[in-house]
Structures are given as structure tokens and as C-alpha cells.
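Entry type: protein chain
Record version: 2
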Amino acid sequence: MSAEPSPSLIPREVVWHDSAVSRAERERLLRQRALTVWMTGLSAAGKSTLAFALERALYDRGRACYVLDGDNVRHGLNADLGFSAADRRENIRRIAEVARVMNDAGLIAITAFISPWRADRAAARAIIGEASFLEVHVSTPLAVCEARDPKGMYGRARRGELPEFTGVSSPYETPQAADLTLDMGRVSLAEAVAQLVGRVDRHGLAALGSAAGAAARP
């Protein structure tokens, strides 16, 4: 049975229809275990660079995967959202729902979003499912991110031109128990990608082990 969305204010006329193809069947077809790699961290921490490098590495290993990037989704899916607290929360909710659907299709989703608030990341984890959620804190320090400032956004925020900018005028809530922490000011891109590929591979092996154990139980 495909994953049914969480109950909400859905009119009773809107009925969930189960697929005739299960997630497990799609995973067997693709020869992989679906997963969402959720990268969180400050602007300019290196999330997008790392996400796309991971996508390339996984693809080269025969994995079906796709990056949901914070900037890219605002060109289409989330083009109607601004940067208020409510809009940023909705931004994360939509991406979590997309990642859930991608996982149900058997794909590996890689996300790169600041996602500054723990509550929003917890909500994303709940939507996607604990077993399919790998939280990666790209922990590059603020000073390093601000020194990079590729879009000039930190400079604008310091001048008061960008209100509610994470790390300057709005807080970033550090993950309390991230599955993996990578400081891209200290770790090379190649090393970080290798660590991530290893975690994705271990997820697949663990999922296979769980499935085998379940099949063996009477």
C-alpha cells in the first residue's frame, strides 16, 4: 500500500486511492531503498554544493535520486511563497510532502534548505517517516558562511536590507541529534560526499535486513 498522507482538513468527498503498485515493489524495480537526505544549515554553508555532488555520486553508482534545492523550488512549486515565518514553514511542508511522494516512488530525495526551526524539521520528519529521514546538519560556522557570502545576502542583512535573515536577524536552531554533521569549512567536498554515500548505503542494508527479519517471523 502506498503511503497515505496525514489527516488534515480534507473534505469528505476527497478520497485517498491506493496504488496497485507498492513502494516495496518500486524499490525492488530500482534496486534501492528510498530515503530522504535532509540537509539543513545556514545560507552559504555549502548545502546545495554538497547536495548536487551527492546526487552525481549516487547516480554514478546506479541510484535513482533527485535534488530538491531551496532556490530551485522557488522558481516553480513555491514561487508564490515569500520569506515570512508562515511562508517559510509552508515552504518546508510542501518540500516534505514532495519528498514523501518521491520516496513512495522508490526514489532517493536529497533536499537542501536552511530549514532553521527544529519544529519545522520535526514536522518534515513526521511527514516523510522516521525510517526514511536522514537529517544532515551542514554545520559550517556563521563566520565562514558570511565570509563566503556568494549572493551578497549577509552584507545586505547587516545593512538592514533583508529583515528576518537567518543567522543575522533571525535565529538558526541547531539540530539536537542530527544523523550526520558536516562542517564544510573543515571537511573537503569529496570527504563529505563519501561519508554521505556510506550512510545511504548503510540505510539500504539496514532496510534489507529489517525486511528479511520481518519475512522470517511466523
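Comment: Residues 40 and 115 are 6 Å apart (CA to CA).
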